[in-house]
Each structure stands twice: as C-alpha cells, then as structure tokens.
Write a structure and sequence with these properties.
One of its GO terms (molecular function) is DNA topoisomerase type II (double strand cut, ATP-hydrolyzing) activity. The chain is about 30% helix and about 25% strand. By secondary structure, the chain is an alpha+beta fold. It has four domains: about 20-195, Topoisomerase II, domain 5 (Alpha-Beta Complex), CATH 3.90.199.10; about 250-330, Gyrase A, domain 2; about 365-485, Topoisomerase, domain 3; about 510-810, DNA gyrase/topoisomerase IV, subunit A, C-terminal (Neuraminidase), CATH 2.120.10.90. Helix 2 (about 50-60) packs across helix 3 (about 75-85) and helix 12 packs across helix 15.
C-alpha cells in the first residue's frame, strides 16, 4: 500500500506555480479595466459606450439612414451581435430601445416605429415587431467615418474592423448624458441642451481662456427630456467646477380650481428625470391609504399623446400648496440626481469639469478635421496625378493612340507609355483605361478644367493644414451648422434657490376658528361662521351630533400660527394651523391623530398658539390633581414629529391646562367644588421639561382642578357652569394666597346651575363662545353678562334642553383690539350622550348674593 505521507516532489511538467493572491489580483484588475474601458464608461470624445457605438456603426453599414425605409430591429440586432458585439441580443436591443425613447434621451439617436416602452415602465415590444432607422442627428455622428478620421480595431473574431471612436460633430456626452456602474467607480452625466452646449463650444473657440463661471452663463445647467425644475444652483456649480455635485429635481405641478365643486386640483404635467409615472401614482395612493397625506379625494392619470397629466383632486377647504409640499417630501415628485462627470480619457477613467469636457471634444474635432483634410489632400493629389497623365495623353493623343495600336498587349503598351512620356504606372494605366469619348474636344477641355480645379483644391487643403486659424474656423462653422439645424429651447427650468417651500409665503394670513371634539375631530372655520347673538339666545347648529361625540374645545388662531398640542399624559406636539383641514359649521372635521403621531391610549387635552418671541417666556402647566409646573418655553422650541415630554404625569393624574406667561403675573386655579386659589407665579420656580412639578392647591379626594388661568388686576373672572350659568367677578375679590392652600369660594353651586366647568379672564371687549354636548353653539358679548359678586349663582348664558350640558367655553378676541393674548383650548367635559338639537327654554335667571364662606 502506498505511503500516504510520501513527500516525493511531483513533476509538474510545463505547469508554473504561482501565488494565488497575485494571480487573483492580476485577473481582477484585468477584469476591472475591461469593464471600465470596454463596457460601462463612455468615451469623452463621442460620449459613447462600445455597445452604443456598435449600434450606430452597424446601422450606418446597413445604410439604415433617416431618409431610407425602416429595418426590423431584429435585423439590426443580428448584425450587431454577429459582427461586433458578442453578447446577448436582449442587452443589445435594450440599448437600441433606450436610444429611441424620447423620455430617456434628450436627443434620441434612433427613430423607432412601434412600441418602444413608456414612462410608466412598460417594456418595449419584441424586436421582431419593431422597426428602426437612424435619426438625422445621429448621422452627424457618423459623418466622415470613411475618410480615415478615426482609428479602427479588429472585431471580436478578427474578421472585420470597427471604429474605436466615432468622428462625431455632436458633443453627445453632454447633450444626452450617460450613466454606468463599473468596478469601483460609476458615472452619471446628465443631459444638456444642445443649443447651450454648442454656444459654449463657440465661446471656447473664440476664447479658450473662458472661465467656468462665464460658461455657466451660457450653460446654466442640465436640461432633462422630461423637463421638470432644478431647485438650486449650488449642485450645478459644484459639478461644473469639480465634476461632482447633487441636484434637486422637482416635478411641475399646477393648481386648477373647480368653481362648481369649490375645490382645487393639483395637476402634474412634468416629471423629474427617470421617474416612473405608474410607480409614482402608486406611491401617492399608498400615502393616501396610510393617511400619511390627507386632503386628497381622488387620483387619476389623464396622460395622452399630448403629454403627461396626472390629476390629484383635493378635499374641500384643503390648501393646495400644503399638499404639494408634502408630495415633494414623500414621493419621487422631488428626486436627487448625483452628477459624476466620469469618462474615458486617453484610455483611462477620469473625472472632468464642464470646461475640460468641452475642450476634449474640441480637441477631438480638431483631430477629425486635420485627419479628414489629410485624407482629402491625399485623394486630391492622387486625382491630380492621374489628371496630369490624362493631360499628357490629350496633348499627345495621336502618338499615344498609334503607340497603343502597335503594342502587342496591355503590359507592353503600359511600359512604352511610362518610358516614352515619363509617366507613372498609375498614370499609364489611367490612360489605357480611358474611354474613347474622353478624346472628344469637350472631354479634353473638361480634363484640363478638372486638373485646374483639383490643383486649387490641393492649395486650399494645404492652406488648412498649414494654419491653425483655418482649422479653428472650420470647427466653428460646423458647430454653427449643428446649432442652426438641431438647436432647440430649454425644457428644464432652473430655480435659483433649493430652499424648502415656505408655506407662510404661500398661505393667506387670516384669523380662523378651530374646534375639536371629544373624540378628537378637528377643523378650522372662517371667523364669520357664527353670528353674534344676544345673551340667552338659542344658538346655531355647530355640527351634527354623533351618538358618542361632542365638542370639547373651541379657540381662535391665525393660519400662520404654530399650535402646541398637549395630551392628557403630558406629551406635546406641534402643527401649523394651515395644516388643519377647513370646514363649515356642519362638517365633522378630521381626527387629530391623522395630523400628529400621537401614542395610542392618549387624548388631546390642550391646544395653544406659540408666540413669535419665546425668549423670557414660560409654560405654566397644571394637572387635575392640583400640580403646577413652570418651565422655560425655549425648552419646547424644537419638537420632534413624534412629540416631546412636556411634564411627568404620575399614575392616576392627567394634564389639565397649559398657559404661556412672562413669569410676572398671578396663577388662578379653580376646583370642581367651586373654590379658587390665587398665588404669584414667582411662588413656582422654573423646573426642567420632564420634571413633575409642585403642589398648587390642596384638594380633597373627590375634587379635581377644572381650570387654570394666568391673570393680573386688569381683567375680570368669568365663571361658567355645566347648566349654562355664568357671571363676571372683579379679580380684586380673589385675594392672593400662598401656593398650596385650599382656596376660597368662587361661585355658589346648586342643582340648578350645576358644577363649575370653566373660568376665563375677560374684558368688556371680548366675545364668548359656548358649546353644548349636543352641538349647539352660541356666540355672545361679554359686556352683556352681569358683573356680580364672588359667591353669587350667576345668570343664564345659554338655554339648554333637559339633559343637555355645556362642555366648552372660549372667548373670542376682538380683531380690532391690539392686545397680545394667548388663546388655548379649554376644559374637558364629562362624556354624555349627544342628541339632536332642540329649542332652548326661554328664561333669564339672576341670583342674589349668598353668605360668604371662605377657607384658607
């Protein structure tokens, strides 16, 4: 048995041992360079990758020009993969399809007949069904290919040759752009406007020292086939100077108003480059279904051959600019385009700025013009050489005819002509090949004329080759011809700044009424929705009462205001008023949970307006258990979308009220038993945002706080009960006490007027808004309510039906009064069954003073 441990060296013969790491490194580098140079990156001169270059070359070889009949795509693909591009037919056909798509190419190079896909992402028809031919512009890329203007290389099996680069007159790299991912690098060149690029080339021809900033005045930025708008010039400037930059591209959206339905529609007419329209519509629908974007009632695609038209119908009262901004943020209606001007330069990948790319193209054109002129000069000299021989023949026609007649054969005749007339072999052969008709008088004169003309052409060509100015003039003329024949207008708009849309600049400033229900439905309404009535009126219908929902809050705000939304568990959120949907008296509104990211199990408790200046301001927060906390307002200025903790709430307690203050006034707390305590704000020191707070008032087990106000001696205190009674009392009747006391009696409570539900600091200039649990709303003037003692029962403010109760009270600030004030959502009434609105009982009751009983 053989020894398994035999260490005898094995004879490998011709096999050479190599280090596997070195071999893998070498092979991978070869593969990487093959991908970079031969597949993924375009050449800086013609802007073509090998597959695109081979497509146009094959079509040129087939005479598949713009003025010739179409050929089947399969025919052209067969030639390409059989002769030049040994890859899959689907890859080649895919390249042809893209060259024919007007939404992919700014200037399509292939004229397609049939289904070549759509902006919705639909695939093109099979190549056996479609037909193609070259565009007129693409023929300019093949011009002078037969004049030795470019180098050639063998095809993949050495049976044919193909051009290494095209002698293009068109700067295809910039006008159509390119994208590709190689090994360890990628390119992403946006398309540009041909007119602007050609004008940029002309500027550099006239002055090669033209700066990039000067070029940017001629070429302001990319120009995409799908139009849209570029927001911001910094990305363009960075890309043009360094070769790298990022653009923000937005769709074009118009707002159309339907007067019949009194609502707006957003119409999308242009898309960002490379955005799939069908997927965009799916994304918008998804956001609507997930309630991330509200206010959209319908979405449909009305696109046709005339262009893109996607219509987004809005719900009544929605502000179109707000929805547009949300669409920009959450959908591909705004996209980023990262520019990398990477291309192959002299066989190596290189990142270039805009000027370098234009100069490389001009260098290419200069080489093409020189090589074309050399070729034409060579051909002209060859023709002149032949014409010189024919001229000799014409001058000695009789002798030459006799010489040919006496010669035994063509070879002897050629030899005699060369020896007798000092002709070259080519000239002698041309004389022998000359037809008899060339011996006529006219033909002899034509030979002389052709000779003179060709000598002039030779002189012209030699002049070109001997003068850089002449070569530059030719390049300039050709650029001007391309500009005149193929130039067009810019499609993509360039907006100077890429800043976020400021809704405050787009939304009209106006005061509105905002209401919120027990179940969290919110809406905003015009200030004149409710007419002012006399005290004791029956009110107007505010909203349809549901079986288990009713109003709990009503307040005024400006459409530009920022609202703080506090939950019963001490969380705070922020929202702009214009983001709240608009409605009327009878509409239900939209649930607040659809507008903010409120945690499950929490309820909105307080809403207030954030002042423009927050320095030196405080938040005073009170809970139902009598805890108060004062914090600096600046701690709440940056509220996340998911909210912040405003106060630490202990088990069994809930946030009750929040006020903004300057720290110099007094705090007024009122309990459900009708007792009030007044103490100075300075008694409560500022605490951190997430702290618990300190005791504000002493409560019994059954008591809770129903209201907190920040007051001074300039106001009166309005007290309102659940049965619609209320009164004004001078603030001087509520003397200051130390924080944490039991308070003094604020109002005499009986079965007739019910529990006290709210207190308000008011003046004669204020109006009062009162809402019942059955949707009844009344607006009345404060001046119509009697000024009464602290311990009185009050007067009737609203007539209620049996079983109906007041759930919310809000004062309406007179818009003519220039007084800084803060309006907040107030009170949380007990849940009661709502019922259809009924007529109120006619009665006005005024109670007399009762004995005063105070507790300290």
């Amino acid at each position: 048995m053989a020894d398994d441990n035999n260490n005898t060296p094995i004879n490998h013969g011709n096999i050479t041992p190599v280090v596997i790491q070195d071999e893998m490194k070498s092979c991978y580098l070869d593969y990487a360079m093959s991908v970079i140079v031969g597949r993924a990156l375009p050449d800086v001169r013609d802007g073509m990758k090998p597959v695109h270059r081979r497509v146009l070359f094959a079509m040129d070889s087939l005479n598949n020009y713009h003025n010739k009949p179409f050929l089947k795509s399969a025919r052209v693909v067969g030639d390409i993969i059989g002769k030049y591009h040994p890859h899959g037919d689907s890859a080649v056909y895919g390249a042809i399809v893209r060259l024919a798509q007007d939404f992919s190419m700014r200037y399509p190079l292939v004229d397609g007949q049939g289904n070549f896909g759509s902006i919705d992402g639909d695939n093109a028809a099979a190549m056996r069904y479609t037909e193609i031919r070259m565009k007129k512009l693409s023929e300019q890329m093949m011009a002078d290919l037969d004049k030795e203007t470019v180098d050639w290389q063998p095809n993949y099996d050495d049976s044919l040759v193909e051009p290494k680069v095209l002698p293009t007159k068109v700067p295809n790299l910039l006008i159509n752009g390119s994208s590709g991912i190689a090994v360890g690098m990628a390119t992403n060149i946006p398309p540009h406007n041909l007119s602007e690029i050609m004008n940029g080339l002309l500027a550099l021809i006239d002055n090669s020292q033209t700066s990039i900033d000067e070029l940017m005045k001629i070429i302001p930025g990319p120009d995409f086939p799908t139009a849209g708008a570029i927001h911001g010039t910094e990305g363009i400037r960075s890309a043009y100077h360094t070769g790298k930059g990022v653009l923000q591209i937005r769709a074009k959206m118009d707002v159309e108003h339907n007067a019949k339905k009194d609502r707006d529609s957003i119409v999308i007419t242009e898309l960002p480059y490379q955005v799939n329209k069908a997927k965009l519509i799916e994304r918008i629908a998804e956001l609507v279904n997930e309630k991330e974007i509200t206010g959209i009632s319908d979405l449909r695609d009305e696109s046709s051959r005339e262009g893109i038209r996607v219509v987004i119908d809005l719900k009544k009262g929605e502000i179109a600019t707000v929805i547009i901004n949300k669409l920009y943020k959450s959908t591909p209606l705004q996209t980023s385009f990262g520019i990398i001007f990477l291309s192959i330069v002299n066989g190596q990948p290189k990142v270039l700025n805009i000027k370098e790319q234009l100069l490389y193209f001009l260098d290419h054109r200069r080489e093409i013009v020189i090589r074309r002129t050399v070729y034409e000069l060579k051909k002209a000299k060859e023709r002149a050489h032949i014409l010189e021989g024919l001229k000799v023949a014409v001058d000695n026609i009789d002798e030459i005819v006799e010489l040919v007649k006496k010669s035994e054969g063509p070879l002897q005749a050629k030899t005699k002509l060369m020896s007798n007339y000092s002709l070259s072999e080519i000239q002698a052969q041309a004389i022998l090949d000359m037809r008899l008709q060339r011996l006529t008088g006219l033909e002899r004169d034509k030979i002389i004329k052709d000779y003179n003309d060709i000598m002039k052409e030779i002189a012209r060509l030699e002049l070109i080759l001997g003068s850089d100015e002449e070569i530059t003039a030719i390049i300039k003329t050709e650029c001007q011809e391309i500009l005149e024949n193929f130039g067009d207008k810019r499609r993509t708009e360039i907006v100077a700044k890429a800043d976020e849309i400021h809704m405050e600049d787009l939304v009209k400033q106006e005061d509105v009424i905002v209401t919120i229900t027990h179940k969290g439905y919110v809406k905003r309404m015009a200030m004149d929705t409710y007419r002012t009535q006399k005290r004791g009126g029956t009110g107007v219908k505010g909203a349809d009462g549901a079986d288990d929902d009713f109003y709990t809050s009503i307040f005024t705000a400006n459409t530009h205001s920022t609202l703080f939304i506090f939950t019963n568990k001490g969380q705070v959120f922020s929202i702009k008023v214009y983001n709240i949907p608009e409605g009327n008296r009878t509409t239900k509104g939209r649930n607040i949970v659809n507008l903010i990211q409120m945690p499950a199990g929490e309820a909105v408790k307080k809403i207030m307006i954030l002042p423009d200046v927050i320095e030196g301001k405080f938040l005073m927060i009170a809970t139902e258990k009598g805890i108060v906390k004062k914090s600096e307002l600046s701690e709440y200025k940056n509220i996340r979308q998911s909210g912040l903790t405003a106060i630490k709430i202990v088990e069994g307690d809930n946030l009750l009220s929040v006020r903004i203050t300057d720290g110099t006034k007094d705090v007024l707390l009122c309990s459900s038993s009708g007792k009030i305590i007044r103490f100075a704000e300075t008694d409560a020191r500022p605490l951190g945002r997430v702290s618990q707070g300190v005791k504000g008032i002493e409560l019994t087990e059954d008591e809770k706080i129903i209201g907190m106000e920040i007051i001074d001696d300039s106001v009166e205190i309005l007290s309102v009960t659940s049965q619609g009674y209320g009164k004004r009392t001078s603030v001087s009747e509520y003397r200051k006490q130390s924080r944490g006391g039991k308070g003094i009696l604020a109002m005499r409570l009986t079965e007739k007027n019910g529990e006290i539900i709210d207190i308000k600091p008011v003046t004669d200039k204020d109006d009062l808004m009162i809402i019942s649990d059955k949707g009844q709303v009344i607006r009345t003037k404060i001046s119509g309510i009697s000024l009464m003692g602290r311990t009185t029962q009050g007067v009737r403010l609203i007539k209620l039906k049996e079983g109906e109760a007041v759930v919310a009270v809000e004062k309406i600030i007179d818009p003519d009064e220039e007084v800084e004030t803060v309006v907040a959502a107030e009170g949380s009434a007990p849940a009661v069954q709502a019922a259809p609105a009924t007529e109120a009982v006619e009665a006005d009751d005024v109670e007399t003073d009762a004995p005063e009983t105070d507790e300290e």
